[in-house]
Every structure is written in structure tokens, then in C-alpha cells.
Amino acid sequence: MRCHWERLGVLSPIYELVGQGLGDRAIAGKLKLTEVTVQGCVSWLLRSFNCHNRAELVLYASPAERETWGLHAG
Fold it and tell me: pTM for this one?
């Protein structure tokens, strides 16, 4: 079952912007979302990837890390 954020179509774009090191406010502005929506999505990502803090999530989502695993952004 897809989560709420996937159904809205914001999970992947937020994940990619987190990987670029952007904060919640900057992500919200870029994607025309509320900051609360971004915060909820980031919280979901933290739990889903078992990250203890945002810094871990940034490292996990960074383009360099995706290249390490052979994953390429859309």
C-alpha cells in the first residue's frame, strides 16, 4: 500500500531536495507546498529509512550515495 505522501506525488521530489541539503522552508517554496507538508514527509522518510536525524537522511538521499548504489535520479 502506498503512503499518503506517495499518493500526493511529493515523496520523491522532497527526498531528492533533502539529498541536496535543502531545508524544509526552501523545499516548500520550490515545490509550492506548505512547510508542514514537507515536515511530515521528512518525518516519514526518517522513520522509513531508520535514520536517527536529518543529517543521516541527507547523506542517505545525497546524489553521491545514489550513485554508489547504482541508482540514478529520474
Answer: 0.76
